[in-house]
Every structure is written in C-alpha cells, then in structure tokens.
C-alpha cells in the first residue's frame, strides 16, 4: 500500500452566524415536519428534470469507502407500473394473509392499509432504490462496504429533496421484493431496497391522524 497521501483539495465551507444557523435549522425542521406519506395520488405528470435533480441530490450522500452503492430506477411506463403493482399485491396478500403476526396487523390497522396498492399505478412515477451488494470495476468484481447504511442515507436525502421540491411520496416495502429485479431486469448485484411512488396528492387525499414523538423522547444527552 502506498504511503503517499491521497489527492485532496481545500474544503469550501462557509461558517454561518449562529442566528442564521438557528433560522435554517428551524425552517428545515418545519419543512420536514409537514412531510406525510401519501397513498392517494393524482395522475397528473410531474417535471422529470425536478426528479433528476432530486436523484442527483440523493447521490451526494456519504457512503462506505465512497463506493456509492446505489442505483435509482425511474419508472414512468404504465405497463411496467402495472406489472409492479400486480406483483406487489401478490406478495402483500401473502403478508396480510399469514406472514404478518397479529401485532403487526394491529399496528397497520390504524394506517388503513390493505394488500391493495392502487397508488403504484396512480402515481405518475415510481423510483425504485436498489442497493449494489457489490460493484464492477473494469470488468472485475469490486467489494462494497456498509451498503445498507449507505443506501438508507441516500434514500433519506431523496425523500427530503422530493418534499422540498413540492412533491408527495410514500415509502413502500413489499416483502420480498425480488420481483422488482425481475421486472426491471436489473443485474444480480442490485438488490431492491425501497419503492417510492412520487407525484402530487389527489384532491380528495386523506391521511391518518398521527403524532410524532417529541424531542425529549428521541434525544438522549450525554454531557
């Protein structure tokens, strides 16, 4: 291993006044506190360049050894969305019909979810987030590191970027999700991680009454 330092450049970092730090932090908190999962979408199309910018933002997330182990499949083809819905509902019927235990089903009941997933066709587009379990470099298999954590962070960036752009989203995880690899014809190293319908809420969209945990329940101070 070489002992010489890797190439580097000076960090460009603007240190903000504390008043601006507080203002930005509060504004961003207020923005994301308003984000809700949506299951009733308008079929109205959304600007694809906005989606591309949001995916570019997701690609700026940190990753293990900077391997960037993610792929984002952008699905707008109605036939492909239909195939995804049918396959997802088949898995979900098995989930609701026996795979999920009674506690799981009870926790889902307050959300009003069922095995039927019409939003997979109603939303103008789907983003399938795929985790690259390993990569290829000049035709050779290359190890990736901390892929679950890395792709999870990128997915969080993506959801925040889409909400910031004025779009509604849903995190959908039909399990198992191998059907997504088959339908999208993805290589064996890419594993489905998350399915995100994206669009505008339907005019009659309703959401469950939910409360988020307050700060004192999620923050532990070690001083």
Structure description:
There is one protein chain. With 223 residues, the protein is an alpha+beta fold. The strands form 2 sheets. The protein has a 4-stranded antiparallel β-sheet. A two-stranded antiparallel sheet has the order 3-4. The model has no long low-confidence stretch (mean pLDDT 95).
Which terms summarize this structure?
15% strand; 223 residues; two-stranded antiparallel sheet; alpha+beta; NADH Oxidase; four-stranded antiparallel beta sheet; 8 helices; globular; single chain
Judging by the overall fold, what is the CATH architecture? 3-Layer(aba) Sandwich
- Describe the sheet with the most strands: 4 strands, antiparallel
Helix content: 40-55%
Strand content: 15-25%
Overall body shape: globular
- CATH top level assignment: Alpha Beta
Strand runs, count: 6
Within CATH, the superfamily carries the name NADH Oxidase
Rg over C-alpha atoms, rounded to the nearest angstrom: 20 Å
Q: How many domains comprise the coordinates? A: 1
Structural class: alpha+beta
Q: What letter string, H or E per element, gives the SSE order?
A: HHEHHHEEEHEHEH
Number of H- or I-type helical stretches: 8
Q: What is the CATH third-level topology name?
A: NADH Oxidase
Name the strands of the widest sheet in spatial order: 1-2-6-5
pLDDT averaged residue by residue: 95
């Amino acid at each position: 291993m070489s002992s010489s330092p890797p190439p580097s450049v000076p960090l460009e970092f603007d240190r903000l006044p504390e008043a601006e730090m507080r203002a930005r932090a509060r504004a961003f908190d207020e923005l994301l506190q308003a984000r809700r999962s949506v299951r009733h979408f308008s079929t109205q199309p959304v600007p694809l360049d906005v989606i591309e910018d949001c995916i570019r933002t997701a690609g700026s997330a940190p990753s293990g050894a900077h391997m960037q182990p993610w792929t984002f499949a952008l699905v707008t083809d109605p036939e492909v969305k239909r195939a995804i819905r049918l396959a997802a509902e088949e898995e979900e019927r098995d989930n609701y019909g026996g795979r999920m235990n009674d506690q799981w089903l009870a926790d889902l009941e307050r959300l009003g979810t069922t095995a039927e997933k019409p939003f997979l066709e109603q939303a103008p587009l789907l983003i399938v987030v795929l985790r690259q379990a390993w990569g290829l470099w000049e035709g050779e298999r290359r190890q990736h590191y901390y892929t679950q954590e890395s792709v999870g962070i990128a997915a969080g960036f993506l959801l925040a970027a889409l909400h910031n752009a004025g779009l509604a989203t849903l995190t959908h995880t039909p399990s198992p999700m191998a059907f997504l690899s088959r339908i999208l014809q993805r290589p064996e190293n890419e594993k489905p991680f998350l399915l995100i319908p994206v669009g505008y809420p339907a005019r009659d969209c309703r959401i469950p009454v939910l409360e988020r945990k307050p700060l004192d329940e999620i923050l532990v101070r070690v001083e």
